[in-house]
Design brief:
Four copies of one chain form a homotetramer. Chain A is α/β, with parallel strands linked by helices and about 160 residues long. Chain A has helices spanning about 20-35, 45-55, 90-95, 105-120, 145-155, and strands spanning about 5-10, 35-40, 60-65, 80, 100-105, 125, 130-135, 135-140, 140-145. In chain A, the strands form two sheets. Chain A has a seven-stranded parallel beta sheet with strand order 4-3-2-1-5-6-9, with helices on both faces. A two-stranded antiparallel ribbon of chain A has the order 7-8. The longest helix of chain A has 16 residues, at about 20-35.
């Protein structure tokens, strides 16, 4: 049954650097190899690269879309979820995952990181945001050096439920 | 690729009559036999019966949940989407489908029927609501006499996108 | 303090008949005269007519908007709430009210009626939808003959909280 | 007409330090003195302190609530907006404002900061988060030394629409 598999979100910007896109594709491949299901926001950039990687290894990809049409999904999304709720869908992207891998990204990615941390969902970071709160470093985002390490950490730290 | 398959939502109440639960289970089985993917609200009653039917035929089931935890999904949900958005998730349930089959149901189901009709998504009804607008019958809900007819109509009328 | 005042939602279509627009304007005037605060979806048609009526009597008007910009609000909205959540904002329109007055309207209005009834919020109807469930009339929408009667009933039936 | 006034969001945690609560109350007072309308998430802590300050100067306060009941609003909220959408309401809190003042806060506040920056809404910070993106400082959060300076900057930078 699919639901025993782990759901891991991959988040990141729609205009990644070439390095970030490569990282994302490799994250997608690794997740699929290990039998995890990939959740993302369904659009381009990091999301598309990760889905392309997952699909190349036969993995399942879910895209939780902000707009009104499934046509906006990248071509590697197998399960498009159409919300029509704009950026509020960021909340559903992370809550639908047991761990989150953040790759690069801008403020939308930061909002997803925040919603995940607020919900107690582990966040693994690759070339992404770092945080300080009132002058003190906040180390909640768990750093990874490369895509394989990020997937290792995500699968190890994934919440039980 | 999964995304070439049709996505059909099955909506209805959490406390169906025995007849409605049987209808829902048969709808789920028929959808799975024909290769469609079942989308629902993820909880009990009609949703659970339809998912049980789909799973018995090897079909894929998606549950778009209102609360904060995937644990609330019925045991036949393979893809739990966790929104934390309460009844606002009803919008995503119908927008994620290319046609909707409504079985019985109360006001929550009526809200889903309304959101589907507002979005131009066909709604097939089994023992469900009927509508009049300012005294004139509104025949937008397409009646079906039984589960097989409902699935036939849903698959025939499913929107292209 | 404003919060002791009653919050009443006025819902209806963006393309009302002349009669419905007149009803809506009168509902808005009556609500303002009696010190109630008008909540609506913030756009045109019934919403705008009701707000124009309320403003002509010095009433306060709140518009809970579906889009990304406060500029979309009709000119009689004093408090624009910008959700960016599309039709999911319909849920907030009715939940923010202690009673709802529905005037005419199409499927969007029907979704708001449904969400209100699901939440136990009284709905008063003027020239609007009527419902049957599995062949039995559902009389949950309380009919009113005219705008003053609708406002009377809404204020009398408004939930305490 | 109220809508010519500026709408400023005050965001921050529900368990502020004593210093942060004082800052928030002063921010609320200053906003009210200058005729701005205060938008917040409607609950306790920074939100409540800011509303108490605003109300003491006769200002208008709006609380966009996550839950199902207006009863959860702090006692200084005059306009409770009930969304039932959980943390997805954070998007509406910032989008309903022309500038945002962040005081302390945890991950929920960080999500609001992110959604504001993503939408091009200026964010003024008092004892709050600071950000680095892939090792480079991101200075999008505009620092203020005290409550009066924060209000000055928020009113000066408020978006036109």
């Amino acid at each position: 049954m699919t639901s025993k598999k782990k759901f891991i979100a991959v988040i990141g910007g729609s205009e990644p650097s070439a390095e970030e896109a490569q990282m994302a594709e490799k994250v997608g491949r690794e997740l699929a190899k290990r039998g995890a299901i990939l959740v993302c926001g369904g659009l381009g950039g990091v999301m598309e690269a990760a889905c392309r990687g997952a699909q190349s290894e036969g993995g399942l990809t879910i895209g939780i879309l902000p707009g009104e049409s499934r046509q906006a999904a990248n071509p590697y999304i197998q399960i498009p979820i159409v919300t029509g709720m704009g950026y509020a869908r960021n909340v559903a992207v992370v809550k639908s995952a047991q761990a989150v891998i953040a790759i690069g990204g801008s403020y939308g990615t930061l909002s997803e990181i925040s919603h995940a941390l607020q919900s107690g969902i582990p966040v693994i970071g690759l070339n992404t945001w770092s945080l300080s709160r009132n002058g003190q470093p906040d180390n909640s985002i768990i750093p990874a050096q490369n895509s394989v390490e990020a997937v290792d950490k995500a699968l190890n730290l994934a919440t039980k439920e």
